[in-house]
Specification:
The protein has 17 helices and 15 strands. By secondary structure, the protein is an alpha/beta fold.
């Protein structure tokens, strides 16, 4: 019987960053002769998009059903920026309940039995309240490996009391070579290693000079759904952003392409900006198959989305990173500080000036030579991810 590993994260929504993580992790497993089983909030959609087996889990209250669904699974891998309560107090309960649902373990000579669970490419942000941190520490201590995607996440987990945390990289940094459909990846011979990551995608030759704009509504805590909370939360920002983007387009002589990395949340905000701006801007339709190529069609990128910045780095593009969350500052600083970081506190205060974005774009393009080195440094850290995954397989076998 083929080995099967469950992949847990924020899968099954239309967040393309998380969907790219699932694609890359699925390819990594299949290259090792392992079948991925995605734990998803929309199992039918995940199975159709990624060509993988998927099991449903939408609530901590569904954990008993998830435990039954995972009985034939040999291990579990958790990935993505799931250790945080910035958007909802329920996030920690939700994701940690998945780890609790999977209880298979192996004996250890160094203390308690180790769960056949690994966190690989994990992001840890702000967690409000001691209860959430205790929950994260409890589950991370059970894991065979904890590999974060950035040094700041590792530092938080260590400060909370999680031992043995290693710093790896975000799985999407494996590159566009890994972002083939999982159905195509399934045809590779078992036990073959992943192909070496391809170089930057260059699809810009058939387009005019453009700026890729990747924006999202601000995080707002509360018990309502993310869709409900973000439906209007961006409205105080619209005028300031529209003026700034108009000024940037006029200064640069470039047109704007608006790229919704999570259409259900981002499109309303981007459409409102499109209506308010004086500059013509194209609102682009994205999916997991075309997202990297669409980002590549711009000269540089302005992004509030973490994986929008990852996509820019993969495509060797300068980036202005808008700092709405700790993970954005961490990524901009990684690899020697390759991107320009802009504090968004002025937006909430109503004082965001067009000059801020223009100066940041100039600085980003001046330091665009750093992207190649930064990409190489971060991709080198993917070896830490691979080593953790390989060790997990050895424990199973």
């Amino acid at each position: 019987m083929a080995l099967r590993i469950a992949l847990a994260g924020w899968y099954g929504s239309d967040n393309l960053g998380d969907e790219m993580i699932l694609s890359c992790m699925s390819v990594a497993l299949r290259a090792r002769g392992v079948e991925p089983v995605a734990v998803s909030i929309d199992a039918e959609r995940t199975a159709a998009v990624h060509g993988v087996e998927a099991v449903a889990h939408r609530s901590p209250l569904d954990s008993a059903a998830l435990r039954r669904s995972l009985r034939g699974v040999h291990a579990m891998v958790l990935s993505g920026g799931v250790v945080q309560s910035e958007t909802s107090p329920w996030n920690m309960w939700f994701h940690m309940s998945r780890l609790r649902a999977y209880r298979r373990s192996v004996p250890s000579t160094r203390g308690p039995a180790r769960a056949l669970v690994a966190a690989i490419g994990l992001g840890a942000g702000h967690v409000r309240g001691a209860g959430g941190r205790r929950m994260a520490v409890s589950e991370m201590r059970r894991a065979c490996h904890v590999v974060t995607r950035d040094a700041a996440s590792a530092r938080r987990l260590r400060d909370w009391g999680v031992p043995g945390v290693a710093v790896g990289a975000d799985p999407v940094l494996a590159g566009d070579a890994a972002l083939v459909s999982s159905r195509a990846a399934a045809t590779r011979p078992p036990h073959s290693r992943p192909a070496a990551p391809a170089g930057p995608t260059d699809s810009r030759g058939d387009s005019t000079d453009t700026i890729g704009v990747i924006l999202r509504p601000p995080n707002r805590r509360g018990i309502r759904t993310a869709a409900a909370k973000t439906r209007t939360s961006w409205q105080p920002w619209t005028g300031q952003l529209a003026r700034s983007l108009d000024a940037l387009a006029e200064r640069s002589g470039m047109t704007l392409r608006l790229l919704p990395f999570q259409p259900s949340q981002d499109t309303g905000m981007l459409a409102a900006l499109q209506r308010e701006m004086k500059t013509d801007a194209e609102l682009v339709t994205l999916d997991v198959d075309n997202v990297l190529a669409e980002v590549a069609r711009s000269r540089f990128v302005v992004t509030m989305r973490y994986h929008g910045a990852i996509a820019a780095l993969l495509n060797d593009q300068a980036a202005v990173v808008l700092d709405y969350s700790p993970k954005m500052g961490s990524l901009a600083a990684e690899g020697g500080g390759w991107a320009t970081l802009v504090d968004l506190a002025a937006l909430d205060a109503g004082r965001f000036e067009p000059r801020t974005l223009i100066d940041a774009a100039d600085e980003a393009q001046d330091q665009s030579h750093r992207t190649t080195e930064a990409r190489g440094l971060l991709r080198e850290r993917l070896k830490v991810n691979d080593a953790a995954l390989d060790d997990l397989l050895e424990l199973i076998q």
